[in-house]
Amino acid sequence: MFTAEQRAALRERLVAEARRDPAIGAAALVGSAAGGREDRWSDIDLALALAPGADRDAVVAAWSALLYEDHGAVAHLDVWAGGTLYRVFLLPSTLQVDVSFWAAEEFRARGPEFRLLFGAAGEPAPAAPPAAGELVGWGWLYALHARTSIARGRLWQAEYMVSGVRERALALACLRHGLPAAQGRGMDELPADVTGPLAGALVRALERGELVRALGVACAALLREAAAVDAGLAGRLAAPLAELADPPEGAPAGG
After folding, report:
1. pTM exceeding the 0.85 threshold for the entire prediction
2. I need a labelling partner for 169 at 20 to 30 A (CA). Which of 112, 131, 135, 217 fits?
3. What GO molecular function annotations does the UniProt record carry, in alphabetical order (predicted)?
4. What stretches of the chain show up as alpha helix (H) in DSSP?
């Protein structure tokens, strides 16, 4: 496990490297360090803007070599957001290092946690939260497949689907309370009268009865949150969700 001192030292070395790199025109810290919320478990989030004329593939390759060869990275994951690449590195110490590579014209704060280190950034453009209607749609779709999985006796798949219903209900609650709705970031700030009932949507055992019980709680929560978004839609979903929460004992295999 890494220490806070080791994390700070590595971040300083990476920032110094960015300042020396002629292919980097600007850099910023993002995430908890930029927002003053860093704790024992925080990772490193460094955003890099390419200098004019820099070849992104070459820059990414050079920085990847730096993390692997000089700092012992063991693996990485690429995540794209529009034209920006977020390359997420895992170090042997379990420290996560996120390095994002931005076109200069797109380099700007996408949320409140952005601290420019050098260079220039465009005007902030906060990322849009997930659409409430889309969350409701994914919620009932997960419920549909949860019912089918339970009926087929596919218990692991059913647990996954029930969890999907619960997570969409929680994300909708986050939107309603003005909290971050992506990746569960706002869920721990939800009031107890929201999270308390939803704790019942946790699947406690891979048994049919337990899955049916948890699905029923999750569907009820999804319906409550849908009503806050679109009362008409919630009214139309009420009967189908009630049916989905009561899977039959068996169903033929198939799509």
Report:
1. yes
2. 112
3. transferase activity
4. 4-20, 32-35, 56-65, 132-152, 155-176, 192-198, 208-229, 231-244
Q: Are 139 and 169 in contact (CB under 8 A)?
A: yes
Q: From 1.20.120.330, 1.10.10.10, 3.20.20.140, 2.20.25.90, which CATH number describes the 132-244 domain?
A: 1.20.120.330
What top-level class would CATH report for the domain 4-118? alpha beta
- Mean pLDDT of all residues in 96-119: 97
Token match 């465009």: residue?
Answer: 122
Query: Per the structure block, which two tokens stand in for 58?
Result: 């070459």
Cα angle: 137, vertex 140, 141; to 5 degrees: 80
How far is Cα 210 from Cα 201, in angstroms, rounded to an integer? Answer: 10
Window from 30-34, 114-118, 154-158, 248-252 with minimum mean pLDDT = 248-252
